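Recall the central idea of this unit: under ordinary conditions, the amino acid sequence of a chain determines the structure it adopts. In this exercise we apply that idea directly, starting from the sequence alone.
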Amino acid sequence: MVADPGAIAYDPYVVLGVSCLASADEIHRAYRALARRFHPDVNPDPSAVTSFARATEAFELLSDDAWRRTYDLRRSASHGPRAARAAPAPTGNTQVRGPGAVPAHRSRGASPSTPREEPDPLAVIGTLAKLTAVAVVLLLIAIALVALNSPPVCAPGVDEPCRVVETPAGG
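Accordingly, the structure predicted from this sequence is:
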């Protein structure tokens, strides 16, 4: 399974030997030819396993329309519309699958976007503690502002405005 179409280290079109304008049938035929040639049950050469895994990963990426579209957009944005890169070792899919296997990204219904990472629980608790402290400070400021701006409290039943009576300092 290709985790991120933009992170693939080689050009799957080059691996399969097809044009970037190739149809789904052409991609499928190219993959089948490479699978027959490099399948570990048929070819005892140790490098055949790597070649088969690379071809399988390239086919999985290009056979899914959403993944292919995402890869093509990233490829043309970073290297131009006709970019081709050398094919180093595969980036992930080293499992040998049978002819009727469904690619893992299709069976789980994943999207071609980059998966979200789970946040660290301690970081979440720390952030919540900081937000709580800020909320308490803001609440105290609001209470102080209301207390400073409120009129003085008068005795009940008195219609006259309240006056502040100064008391002597001694008592």
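The two ends are 86 Å apart (CA to CA).
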